[in-house]
């Protein structure tokens, strides 16, 4: 299979977005109001904290700020006290609920072409993110998804709901019992992680470089039951007329994303990040200098943002957090955190969580 790769790197409209803010089509939030209500959540409070009006959720051509969309789901999980909110929202999310993008996928003739359609149209659906399908060394295929906007740090709910959505697109052609070989998430393992294996009916691995569904290529030739080439063409045209949700090449964002992906394996060197991005180390440094930061600054900022996020997850031991941030030992992480915040990791956790 040829590599399919579409990257959306900065977005276009908001809740409502500015021309520079990464965006997402509001159809991705179809049904969230009812889902929150079933969990007895406070609609006005959740949407208010995200800066989105409830009636915006699900509108097929409206662009929301991606950061606001992500906040909406994080707030919904927090205020309904359902830590796996995004997991189960995505699990029940039907492809048609995705609007233009979803209809384009299910109108494709085969599962393989449906995934190609998802990837090729992704830049019209969501900004500052990538969706790609690649062949792994073991012969399996991997549908990979990740947000690359460096300022969107807490994004676990979105990752879980997105893979659930993609799972249901594949199940349109393979049947409701189909399951991937593996599921990967970039965030650390949550407390109720067994629910993830139940939702995907597959082994689930956390703290991975990227969010992904891993599967065999033999599903590519399976027919999609709702295939309709005329409807597919109409949906593609409609999305293209909306215009991409990205407005710039977003190299700075991709540098920060590459740093984040490599941290669990130790301190990411400049050469490693440049290699991952297929550019020269000098090009990395030039891009960072245009944003008035050094490479060391970029690594430190990424580490600090993730540290503050992970410390609010009480199930994560401090030693594990240190490793996830690329430190070989807890003491090195503790010294760095004290330098950033003036507090120890334990004190920060106590203040933020009460434990």
How would you describe this structure in keywords?
single chain, 355 residues, alpha+beta, Arc Repressor Mutant, subunit A, 2 domains, six-stranded mixed sheet, two-stranded antiparallel sheet, 8 strands, 49% helix, globular
Question: How would you describe this protein?
Answer:
The chain is α+β, with helices and mostly antiparallel strands and 355 residues long. It contains 17 helices and eight strands. It folds into two domains: 4-242, no CATH class; 251-353, Orthogonal Bundle (Arc Repressor Mutant, subunit A), CATH 1.10.10.60. The protein has helices at residues 32-38, 43-50, 66-80, 85-91, 100-106, 111-120, 122-125, 156-174, 194-200, 229-242, 251-262, 270-277, 281-290, 295-311, 318-324, 330-341, 345-353; strands at 4-8, 23-25, 63-65, 129-135, 141-147, 182-184, 204-205, 211-215. A hairpin with a 5-residue loop joins strand 4 (129-135) and strand 5. Residues 1-14 have low confidence and may be disordered.
């Amino acid at each position: 299979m040829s590599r399919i790769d579409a990257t959306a790197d900065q977005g276009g409209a908001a809740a409502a977005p500015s021309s520079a803010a990464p965006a997402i089509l509001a159809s991705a939030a179809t049904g969230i109001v009812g889902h929150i209500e079933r969990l007895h959540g406070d609609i006005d409070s959740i949407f208010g904290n995200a800066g989105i009006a409830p009636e915006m959720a699900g509108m097929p051509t409206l662009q929301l700020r991606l950061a606001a969309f992500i906040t909406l789901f994080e707030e919904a999980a927090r205020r309904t006290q359902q830590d796996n909110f995004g997991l189960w929202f995505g699990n029940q999310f039907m492809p048609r609920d995705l609007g233009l993008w979803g209809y384009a996928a299910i109108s494709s003739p085969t599962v393989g072409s449906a995934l190609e359609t998802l990837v090729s149209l992704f830049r019209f659906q969501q900004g500052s993110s990538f969706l790609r399908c690649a062949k792994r060394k073991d012969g399996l295929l991997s549908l990979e998804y990740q947000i690359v906007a460096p300022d969107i740090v807490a994004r676990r709910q979105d990752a879980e709901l997105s893979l659930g959505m993609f799972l249901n697109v594949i199940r349109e052609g393979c049947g409701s019992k189909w399951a991937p070989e593996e599921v990967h998430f970039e965030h650390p393992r949550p407390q109720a992680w067994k629910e993830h294996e139940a939702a995907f009916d597959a082994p689930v691995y956390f703290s991975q470089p990227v969010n992904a569904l891993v599967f065999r290529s033999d599903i590519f030739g399976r027919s999609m039951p709702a295939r309709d080439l005329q409807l597919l063409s109409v949906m593609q045209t409609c999305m293209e007329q909306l215009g991409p949700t990205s407005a710039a090449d977003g190299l700075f964002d991709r540098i920060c994303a590459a740093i984040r992906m490599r941290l669990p394996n130790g301190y990411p060197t400049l050469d490693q990040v440049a290699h991952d991005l297929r550019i020269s180390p000098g090009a990395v440094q030039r891009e960072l200098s245009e944003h008035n930061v050094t490479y060391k600054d970029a690594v430190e900022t990424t580490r600090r943002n993730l540290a503050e996020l992970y410390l609010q997850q009480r199930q994560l031991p401090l030693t594990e957090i240190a490793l996830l941030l690329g430190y070989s030992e807890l003491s090195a992480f503790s010294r760095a955190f004290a330098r950033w915040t003036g507090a120890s990791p334990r004190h920060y956790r106590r203040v933020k969580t009460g434990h």
